Amino acid sequence: MHYQGKVYRPWPEAESVLIQTTLGCSNNQCTFCNMFSDKRFKVRELEEIFRDIEQARRLYPKVESIFLIDGNVIAARTEFLLKIFDKITATFPEIKNIALYAGYNDLRRKTPAQLKQLTQAGLTMAYAGLESGDPEVLKWTQKGMTQEQVMEGAALAKDAGLKMLASFIFGLGGRHRSEEHIQATTDLVNQIEPEEIAPMALAIQPGTELERQVLSGEFMMPSPLQVLEEERYLLQNLNDFDCYYWGDHGNNLSRMKGMLPSARQPFLDRINQHIAHNPVTRQEVIQTFAW
Q1: Neighbours of 168 (CB within 10 A)
Q2: Which of 11, 223, 256, 283 has CA atoms 20 to 30 A from the CA of 45?
Q3: Contact 100, 74 (CB under 8 A)
Q4: Residue 38 contacts by C-beta under 8 Å, 6 or more apart in sequence?
């Protein structure tokens, strides 16, 4: 198996075999992220990817889940991806899940027919960084997308039968835009109704533009209480659509996961317990760790 540079995968994919399909991220300018600062976006050669798939077959007697890395794999040409999925399903007849990172804008750049081809070829899940539904937060973090583009990309994926996991960041609005950030994010999640969501608390990554803004005082970090209140607002105001809640990221103050809406009340009870009794809520600034 060959990997170049830093390698990341979502925590729900901890048991998946990783196949590096692209290098870096096609956006690679978000102010809060330095995951792929060590490389420029590039699609790997098909022959190299095939060799890694064949090596994985030699290494593992049973592979039911594969996650394609790096960032925004969906940006690769549809014909290219179809060849990879065909190779995976031929090499691993036992495969059940094939997932990848996908930007909402890159989903928009596929036709409905192309997305349907991908799901029919074996693609089951796409992980998309929503980050925020607040237009101001999306703008200053240089996410490179709008609410309307998110809705368009999400609708195309849903029509194609592609399950989506939307990740977003508690506290990304900072000290002074916490309410606007979580309200707009919750509203957007309600509109796109992803099959899974993965919220995580803000962590400042060393060397990022956001770190510079924190050090200069341009961005004021939220308090732990604000982050917990954001999670409470989200849980209180999500509509009653079926959605798996991956709220167990290592930086979250209340780590929990389960199916919504059935787990809504137990989750809210736990959040309220933290708000009422956790001494961390008396701190001025949330303390989290780089990815």
Answers
A1: 23
A2: 11
A3: yes
A4: 5, 6
